[in-house]
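Lab notebook: predicted structure, single chain.

Context: the supervisor wants predicted structures on file for every construct in the current expression panel, including those that have not yet been purified. This is the next one on the list. No modifications to the sequence; it matches the entry in the shared construct table.
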Amino acid sequence: MISISTTQSDVLPLSSPTVTAATQSSVAAATGVCVTVHGHFYQPPRENPYLDAIERQASASPFHDWNERIDKECYRPNAFARILNDRGEVAGIVNNYEYMSFNIGPTLMSWLERYDTEVYQRILEADRKSSQRLNGHGNAIAQVYNHIIMPLANERDKYTQIRWGIADFRSRFGRDPEGMWLAETAVDYATLEVLVAEGIRFIVLAPSQAERCRPLIGQNHEGQPAENSEWHEVGGGQIDPTRPYRCYLKPEMRLMADHQLSPLSTHYFGRQHSQNSAAPPANTPYIDIFFYDGPISRDMGFNDVLSSSHHLAGRLGQAVRGDHRPAQLICVATDGETFGHHKNSTEKCLAYAFTEEFPRRGWTVTNFAHYLSQNPSAWEVELKPVTAWSCSHGVDRWQDDCGCGGGGGWHLKWRRPLRDTLNWLRDRLIPIYEEAGRKLLCDPWKARDEYIEVIRDRSPANVDSFLQRHQVRQLDDAEQVDALRLLEMQRHTLLMFTSCGWFFEEISRPEGVQILRYAARALELAAEVTGVQLEKEFVAQLALVPSNVDCFKTGAEVYRQLVVTAQISLKQVAAHYAISSLFAKFPREQRVYCYQAEQQDFQIQRMGSMTLAVGQLQLTSEITRETEVYVFAALHLGGWDFHCCIQPFGSRRSYTMLKERLFGVMQEASASHAILEMVRLFGDQSFSLRDLFAEERHRIVQLLSQENLTRLDQLYTQVYRENYGVMMAFHRDELQVPVELQVAAEVALGHRCLTAAKALEVETEDVEPLLAEIEAIATEAGHLRCQLNVPEVKEILEKMVWRSLEALLQAGAGMEDRSPVHLEADIRTIERLIAVGDRLSLGLCLDRSQELYFNSLYTQIVPLCLGWLQLQDVSAGDSVVAAVALGIAGSGAGWDLSSIRQLLELGQTLAVDVECWLNQLS
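Prediction complete. Output recorded below exactly as produced.
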């Protein structure tokens, strides 16, 4: 059986196999106690600026990178959140995104769309279903594009961030966003003006960001006429978070924000303004604001509130006001990664709370937009000038040595000069973009605002359409490249302000290095288009950025060691392709990260331990469309020694002569002569294995190691076989086996197990002998107390269980044609796969198989149960007719009680709650 953890109280009674039906119905009005749990889901852009892909991150092991790790720990579990019974079996699967308010950063959504389509589609589906349930108001809200601190951005960047966020949201969810999440909830009045101008109706802030509030003129807290509208000071976080507030964009508020003055200041605007209670003019623009409950939100992140849904509901219940108002909103907000990543398995707490605990208390699960549509703001609020939710000093955490995020004796003096340096670069790139852009684009800044359309879809047709709309005239190929380079320069300029670069305690952390890589790419693109070289000045300014790490000392050294070394040229892409071609047979057209590689000629020759590949290659960037044709020669000398040379393609004649000369020298079987000839033909610059991109380098290293590993496996296997009897004697006498013999046994059995599992994975006909072999290995390992380290076997068995279950639970009529004999054999195979995984202590993760079974339980298996039960009440003469009417009789043997019970017992093996149906069939 599968071991699944559960949290206290988050279980369903055994008689309740499905979630509460009331949670699925449409909510007509938001009255009484309403609950909104908001999750801010976000990961910073981690892609290599040159490859448009995230490279392997060792700190995320055993996963490829942190996005993948957090997806498995948080995003996917919330898309398939379990409700468990008191035996730890799955009694329900809930899409938490259907019930919680959420924003998901566009950079994270792009990653999910590419690497976990199933979760991505569940998120989109959740918004659609929540919109149906809540009168057209979906749970999703937008986010400023790449999480920059909006008060620190210039006005043009504010507009682009918000426009990109809206456009990205619209393209995914198929509707305009009603609300928007600001990075770190950082806000000022200038940001509010842009939000209002772009049609955003509401935002969510921390209670500490409000300065004062009052009932709207003519209304009290219940929306009834009010005579007194005096301001209430709430600057210490005392604002009532159970209602929405209206924030008017009055001219004096912008002036105060520009001077960073509080609305209560009297030395600038005088006491009369401070006490003014007049209503703003009727046409004054405004935005509605929700303030989340600060204490409960902090408890969710840092205390045990999420240990069970009972605790969560109890804590939320403490915020309910007993003043008999028609409606009140208990709203909390926290990082979405809290649910599963920061706090393991808490997505189960949410699922049970949404579908059982909250409805049981009579609470309405809603979102901000739906609540606002039913309960318009009856109070006005004024904000502090510049604030954020994770810094008590305004937004100094992202520009100054304020102490927030520090620790361990490390200073934060690097923040201010880093911010100044990047602001300097941004400002220097503006005239470059404008001057060069006007020659190619009708309105360069409008083109930048709409460039999100290309970022979302880089297909040639879409890029052509974009350029057609924005070009000043028909651009030739070179001009199209320059136009795209300029737009990419601006994209990387925006990416270099991603907030994470300042959030922690040191510039040389991965987050700081990443924003410097974006800056380096922007510098490079500016130089390629206009020839303006700014890197030297940029590095000089980075020399004023102090680092806490001795080996760096300043940001300039961080840049040299960690940024410059990661830059990639088209020549390096060609070298990567050339060396890889020694080990892989590439088709004529091959995608290498974000480059299209067209093999125009290729020839390979092996001579003893040496291998030489010579070819002609055209590389085209999918992002900027720049194209180069190269000639390459890659020589493998054996082992880890490679010598690769690249040069631009000259002419067909020179290329033919070069190829003939190299293969002629190869006939001499002399490595030194071959290398000398390559140097003569290509020059001194060469590439080796270390110049490959990390992923391919690791793959080739593994290939090169395989021969040695195979020999070692054979050696260990021989030692194990020769000493098997000796080891058994040690075990019989309960003596400790010599470590050398134990290691030999574990390596030999692990190798056998992996070989059998790989064969099982590709077998399509008779899996019995291979499965029996793995079972025998498990038995042998158990006798010798061996712990096999075979993670690949774990993955293969998980995949085999899912694949076998999918074949078993075919949609539609496929199941009906399966004979009882075949059914029993298929179920037995799945059970054996799971059992052998348990015997090998692999800790199989069968989540996807559970989800597949649970989905089929109520669409296929339960109808079979109901049909069989109804057939018991039908006379023998009418049984066939009734069976056909119920859709449960196949053309062959049909379904008998034994077959249905086997299907249900398979559910028990997968830890799915099927007991009530088994009991009914008893």
